[in-house]
Description:
By secondary structure, the protein is mainly α. The protein has one domain. The protein has 6 helices and 2 strands, in the order αααββααα. It has a two-stranded antiparallel sheet.
Amino acid sequence: MGSVDRQAPSTHPFNSTLETGIRALVVLEAFHPRRCDLLEMTWLDHVVVHTGDLDDPDAPSSLHPDLPNRAAELVVRRPLVEKSLRLMQQLHLVDVFETEDGITFGASDEAPIYLDLLQAPYSLALKERALWIAERFVNNPAGEMREQMEKRIGRWTADFRVEETFAGTRA
Length: 171
């Protein structure tokens, strides 16, 4: 009898598909009724826990530590955000919309009921930051928000590449 090759589930709770899905759901609910595409969701997933990266004096403190290589998160975050949005869709908490401009995501009608159950201090802090971000960006046209994201992502990516180059020269 042949062996079945199974991938072991991740036992690391941080940045798991479920945790990322919950963050995405919190963000989508804060932005409701606005819908966001995958690029926006990837950026927002980073910003909701690293609000200090926005260089805004009114920004709440970041939920996650400001590690020096956090820019690298954006390089690997997109597939995880996409997978987490699919999970939330399967749970009927996220709706997916096909538009002329591409695929967008929105919080479903069931999302508020689920999110009301999340009362841990971390969850409440996450909701506060998502609302703060939504207040800042929800009324911006998608193009303007995208421009701001690309400006920030470009800088973060450049920072990551510089650190990677310096690390490679230290042999």
